[in-house]
């Protein structure tokens, strides 16, 4: 029989017992300490992150805004007193960065550039025909080839009518200045022991298709004749063909000769082959007389007398060309030609040529007077000449023009700066000794920072693209190595390995993560790089390369991917596996189509974290990838990553507040933003694909 009072009694007993028991959790001392430590760590992490952001941001802003003094690789050439406002600097690579109105610094004195005359002399060797061709190109053709029009053309032959017509179309009327005479030298290797002289007819036979030396004379070796000749753009080629082959080079070219516009290359080819023969300017023979033998032609050897009286058949005139309009619009051109004509006979013999006669030079001076529109040819002081000079053309005339250009520079034709001093107060004016470097103020922009493909802060090149490219190259290679191996290891440990095997292999795999990265770096340099060079060839794979660094970084992060992925796979409920088996799926099908998709958020998170780890790796790439920014997409080339560059630069004698010092913070901030965005992406992916079971 049920007792109606029983429920009330039960409730009364429960309420009484609950009043006698205190179920509220009381914190113990060690729990309080743990919570305080965790709270302190959280605050420390927040403040550390904020501090890093503030330091990187502050120094990066300074990098883009403060005065960045860049060495121009030039130095003043004479002492400056307190009153000097104009000085010369060392010649060298054009410094296009300096403009009128810019600020420069000599020592610690800041100055304003009032005038900058970047005097320099460029001489290109193109062959006579090549020099005339560039001289007479249209502005569109010059722009397409990214070349500047020569102001002077070196020529080892007179200009042709077709070239005169081409020049006329662009408003150039060539003016010739004869500067000397050359004798075309017929030469063989010093190792040739059978040939010392030839007749003119035999020379024609050699260059008209003769195949072997025995075809030429009885007793000569039965060896093929190898012709080594200037290129078809060369004035030497044109002169030789005209004088010897009646203007038709077809038979000579049919023998497949070795050809080059560079006479030094011809010399090298001839001296290495005792059965070769060639022709080149007499100066190149003189400069290489130990390696070459000159051939007497019809018993006549090229000398001053035989060249002057015409008894040596292959004597030819040498010229420089310019235009009256160029000479009047750019006075530095007429000044240099005047200097050239006044000095040429002093240096021409040492250059290996034959001096022009008094009458010939007088005619050249008259041409100068007519073209320049002057009453007489003045004495030129190179120190007073301003403006750039460009010459191009004959390799034969090149040594002569180069010698005179060097004298022109020695006599004072140097880059000149005119400045306003006392820019920041009269107290800044000070004397400066010769040799002090000139620096210019350059502030990089964000556009330049993220678009320029050169990173050379010392000369004002601030493009971070090569460093980012190398970083992404090594990280991509690392992920190509680590992702399949890491996920494969995770699947095996989670789905196939027994608990005992899993318990043994997982700690062993994670040992890789405990090896110091400097050890990995030397492993990449001393094992992986030699392996790649053995497989692909030492000519293809550099000693330092992004390929070996990326592979070893991939090996380093395999434990990270495998451990995180294995944890994600292991967390998938067994009920899903059993349901799959119940539908008749195999273990492989269950793993690929059920378990991996269910753990996708964890696997993607492991991937993102591993990419961040690869991007931030320092020691491996610093040791194995290379020590210089290089914008290359080849994994076999040397290239410096962002972290490698920071490690290299900060580890040297880096001056505080220098441009290099500021630059590493700008790179560091870029790296911080890249890894931060990857972490944000990781959180988005985890949230998007997370499955709750």
Q: Any idea what the CATH architecture of the largest domain is? A: 3-Layer(aba) Sandwich
- pLDDT < 50 runs, ≥5 residues: none
Structural class: alpha/beta
In terms of DSSP E residues, the strand content is 5-15%
Number of helices: 26
CATH superfamily label of the largest domain:
Periplasmic binding protein-like II
**CATH level-1 class of the largest domain:** Alpha Beta
Roughly what is the average pLDDT, rounded to an integer?
A: 86
Distance between the termini: 48 Å
The amount of helix comes to 40-55%
How many runs of DSSP E, i.e. beta strands? Answer: 19
* Main pleated sheet: 9 strands, mixed
What's the alpha carbon Rg, rounded to whole Å?
Answer: 39 Å
CATH level-3 fold name of the largest domain: D-Maltodextrin-Binding Protein, domain 2
Domain count:
3
**Molecular shape:** flat
């Amino acid at each position: 029989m049920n007792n109606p009072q029983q429920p009330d009694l039960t409730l009364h007993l429960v309420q009484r017992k609950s009043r006698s028991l205190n179920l509220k959790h009381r914190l113990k001392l060690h729990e309080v300490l743990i919570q305080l430590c965790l709270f302190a760590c959280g605050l420390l992490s927040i403040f550390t992150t904020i501090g890093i952001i503030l330091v990187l941001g502050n120094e990066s802003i300074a990098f883009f805004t403060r005065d960045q003094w860049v060495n121009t690789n030039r130095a003043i050439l004479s002492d400056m007193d307190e009153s000097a406002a104009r000085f010369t600097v060392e010649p060298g690579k054009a410094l296009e960065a300096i403009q009128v109105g810019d600020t420069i610094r000599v020592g610690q004195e800041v100055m304003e550039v009032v005038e900058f005359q970047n005097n320099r002399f460029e001489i290109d060797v193109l062959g006579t025909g090549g020099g005339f061709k560039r001289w007479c190109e249209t502005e569109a053709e010059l722009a397409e080839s990214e070349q500047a029009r020569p102001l002077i053309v070196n020529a080892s032959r007179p200009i042709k009518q077709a070239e005169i017509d081409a020049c006329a179309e662009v408003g150039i009327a060539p003016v010739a200045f004869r500067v000397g005479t050359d004798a075309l030298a017929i030469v063989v290797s010093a190792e040739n022991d059978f040939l010392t002289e030839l007749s003119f007819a035999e020379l024609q036979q050699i260059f008209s298709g003769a195949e072997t030396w025995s075809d030429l004379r009885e007793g000569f070796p039965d060896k093929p004749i190898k012709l080594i000749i200037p290129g078809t753009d060369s004035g030497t080629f044109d002169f030789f063909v005209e004088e010897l082959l009646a203007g038709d080079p077809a038979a000579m070219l049919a023998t497949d000769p070795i050809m080059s516009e560079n006479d030094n290359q011809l010399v090298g080819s001839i001296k290495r082959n005792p059965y070769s023969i060639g022709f080149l300017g007499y100066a190149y023979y003189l400069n290489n007389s130990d390696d070459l033998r000159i051939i007497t032609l019809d018993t006549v050897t090229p000398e001053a007398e035989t060249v002057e009286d015409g008894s040596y058949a292959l004597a030819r005139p040498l010229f420089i060309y310019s235009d009256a309009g160029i000479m009047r619009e750019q006075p530095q051109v007429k000044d240099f030609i005047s200097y050239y004509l006044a000095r040429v006979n002093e240096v021409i013999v040492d250059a290996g040529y034959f001096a022009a006669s008094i009458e010939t030079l007088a005619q050249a001076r008259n041409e100068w007077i007519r073209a320049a529109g002057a009453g007489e040819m003045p004495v030129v002081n190179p120190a007073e000449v301003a403006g750039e000079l460009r010459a191009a053309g004959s390799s034969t005339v090149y040594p002569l023009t180069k010698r005179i250009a060097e004298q022109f520079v020695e006599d004072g034709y140097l880059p000149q700066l005119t400045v306003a001093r006392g820019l920041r107060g009269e107290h800044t004016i000070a004397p400066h000794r010769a040799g002090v470097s000139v620096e210019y103020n350059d502030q990089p922009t964000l556009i330049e920072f993220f678009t320029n493909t050169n990173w050379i802060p010392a000369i004002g090149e601030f493009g971070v693209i090569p460093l980012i490219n190398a970083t992404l190259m090594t990280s991509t290679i690392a992920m190509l190595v680590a992702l399949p191996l890491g996920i494969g290891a995770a699947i095996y440990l989670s789905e196939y390995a027994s608990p005992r095997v899993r318990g043994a292999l997982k700690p062993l795999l994670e040992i890789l993560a405990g090896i110091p990265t400097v050890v990995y770096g030397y492993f990449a340099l001393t094992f992986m790089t030699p392996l790649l060079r053995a497989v692909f060839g030492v000519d293809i794979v550099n000693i330092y390369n992004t390929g070996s660094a990326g592979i070893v970084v991939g090996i380093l992060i395999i434990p990270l991917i495998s451990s995180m992925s294995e944890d994600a796979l292991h967390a998938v409920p067994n009920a899903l596996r059993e349901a799959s088996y119940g539908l008749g799926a195999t273990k492989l099908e269950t793993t690929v189509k059920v378990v991996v998709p269910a753990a996708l958020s964890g696997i993607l998170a492991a991937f993102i974290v591993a990419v961040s780890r690869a991007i931030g790796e320092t020691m491996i790439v610093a040791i194995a990838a290379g020590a210089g920014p290089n914008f290359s997409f080849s994994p076999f080339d040397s290239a410096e990553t962002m972290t490698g560059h920071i490690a290299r630069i900060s580890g040297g004698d880096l001056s505080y507040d220098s441009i290099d010092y500021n630059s590493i913070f700008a790179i560091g901030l870029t790296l911080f933003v890249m890894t931060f965005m990857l972490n944000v992406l990781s959180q988005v992916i985890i949230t998007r694909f997370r499955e709750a079971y």
